[in-house]
Amino acid sequence: MRTVCVATGSRAEYGQLADLMRVIGADAELDLQVLVTGSHLSERFGMTVDAILADGFAIDARVPMPLEGDDPTDIARSMAAGLIGMTEALERLRPDLLVVLGDRYEMLAAGQAALLTRTPMAHIHGGEASEGAMDESIRHALSKMSHLHFTAAEPYRRRVIQMGEPPHRVFTVGAMALDALEALPRLTRAEVTQRLGIPVTTPYFLVTYHPATLDQGDPAEAIAALAAALDRHPDHKVIITGVNADPGHDAVSSAIEAWRSRQPDRVRTFASLGQVLYFSAMRHCIAVVGNSSSGIVEAPAVGVPTVNLGIRQQGRIRSPSVIDCAETESAVGKALALALDVNFRSEASRAPYPFGRPGAARRIVEVLKATEVEGLLTKKFHDLPGMNS
């Protein structure tokens, strides 16, 4: 039996991995191990390890990555603790394969641990671009550390190959989020609004804003512009989900809390909504607003307009339902007006979706089962045509 260890370090990442974990766990040829780290183990970020346990998964390793602040030294200390802990965990668990997703610094520590312990690694959602965040560099670094690749779209597959990865090890499987959207229960509007604590008939915006780690701008000014633009719609509630554990977290969180404190009846904040409530809230919201990848990947899949602020998601493939804007009150205001336009909303509800179809988890599992692990650690650099001439 082949042992597959899945590492997860954040709520958003787990939301995309949960269905894959279920498929691996249900397969008679595979043995699932779960390694939990990062903000999952932090009270400050909602202790989302509880959601993993509630879903019925046994946890084989917990690797704390204490985060005392959000400046570069704090992040470096957290990564150092993660690297040591994950190296020890992989030495103990001895999986045949480690699976990581995306581009967060917690997974960079996991990738380094896999490299040191000679554990073959499969990377999901490589080849993507997010030019306004350090995630861009982490994602590509993880691709070079990995031995199997599962991309969300064909252009992303080509980009991984462009980095020298052997084409026969790179597979386009579609977006992982589609599996979650397909599999999770769908709450009614009444159930969603009751859990959010707002009247059932009240329209609302679903807002997620994370630090844009390569942006030199002041996040407090960006939040102020966002708040001012949303305040033009006083009959709409504002539901804000938690800020991730990136450099700049404290400044963004403080600005959001100041906004909430000024309008406690209208602006509601949640450290984590959980998968079921978050995706259900997305289905019933007026628009997804902010700079999270969920506005690029998940919102278009359910036909909801996205107002995407700033440069954090710059470079990603987009659906026509995504409205990009600068982080100024005027630009956000114009984008919100378009998102509320009846004709645009109709077009967004049937806009073409660029990230494939559901079933990514099963496609990944078939490759994991079919691939010979022996010899996987060594790979020949794939030169593009003409490079050797």
UniProtKB/TrEMBL annotation:
<feature type="domain" description="UDP-N-acetylglucosamine 2-epimerase">
    <location>
        <begin position="26"/>
        <end position="369"/>
    </location>
</feature>
<dbReference type="Pfam" id="PF02350">
    <property type="entry name" value="Epimerase_2"/>
</dbReference>
<protein>
    <recommendedName>
        <fullName>UDP-N-acetylglucosamine 2-epimerase domain-containing protein</fullName>
    </recommendedName>
</protein>
<dbReference type="InterPro" id="IPR020004">
    <property type="entry name" value="UDP-GlcNAc_Epase"/>
</dbReference>
<dbReference type="InterPro" id="IPR029767">
    <property type="entry name" value="WecB-like"/>
</dbReference>
<dbReference type="GO" id="GO:0004553">
    <property type="term" value="F:hydrolase activity, hydrolyzing O-glycosyl compounds"/>
</dbReference>
<dbReference type="InterPro" id="IPR003331">
    <property type="entry name" value="UDP_GlcNAc_Epimerase_2_dom"/>
</dbReference>
<dbReference type="GO" id="GO:0006047">
    <property type="term" value="P:UDP-N-acetylglucosamine metabolic process"/>
</dbReference>
